[in-house]
Design brief:
The protein is an alpha/beta fold and about 220 residues long. The protein has one domain (about 1-205): Peptidase C15, pyroglutamyl peptidase I-like (Aminopeptidase, 3-Layer(aba) Sandwich), CATH 3.40.630. Helix content is about 35%, strand content about 20%. The chain has six helices and eight strands. The strands form two sheets. Strands 2-1-3-8-4-7 form a six-stranded mixed sheet, with helices on both faces. It has a two-stranded antiparallel ribbon with strand order 5-6. Helix 1 (about 20-30) crosses helix 6 and helix 3 (about 120-130) crosses helix 6 (about 185-205). The radius of gyration is 16 Å and the shape is globular. It catalyses: Release of an N-terminal pyroglutamyl group from a polypeptide, the second amino acid generally not being Pro. It is an enzyme of class 3 (hydrolase).
Amino acid sequence: MNKVLLTGFDPFGGETINPAWEVVSRVHRRKTFPELQVEARQIPTVFTTSIEVLRQAILEVQPDVVICVGQAGGRSDIALERVAINLNDARIPDNEGNQPIDEPISEQGPAAYWTSLPIKSITARLRKGGIPASLSQTAGTFVCNHLFYGLQHMIATEFPGIRGGFIHIPYLPIQTAQKPQIPSMSLETMVEAIEIAVIASVQHDRDIIASEGQLH
């Protein structure tokens, strides 16, 4: 039986809810996948600690696939992240007050890692299902990218049999009620999106070839 580990962060930046955790915890509880074991774990929005918590979750669950999910306030679609960069450059403090600026995540690691999820296959399935989706070329330089890079570095150095990557999701409507013109997406739609991502990640060892590049 294939095992999939989903992670979502706790609230940060003054928010009282994080859609990432709300979504992955519901996917975990629904358990609607035939011949799949899906586990969800909450990750603290804290530099360094987040990677250690993820490592312990991987050791506990022993997954075949890891999908980390994070909030991207201001984005309007499901964003499949393509590349994690070796950089911490925090515009705001994390949940323990850490605010690293222009620091590498790993002194010995490469400048970047590619995702090992079939992100173009996932994007195509999401769009076919009527869910807005895109490939993203940057996961930022806050804790989301930090965890994404940490995951890919662990896959490269500790857990070579695992495939993994990162998905950003929009705000929930409750978060944007007092933020005019800021996009959001319903919880039900985002749960469906992550379920689609889980299934596609298990079914596709190789990604499809499709044009998803950007001009700038």
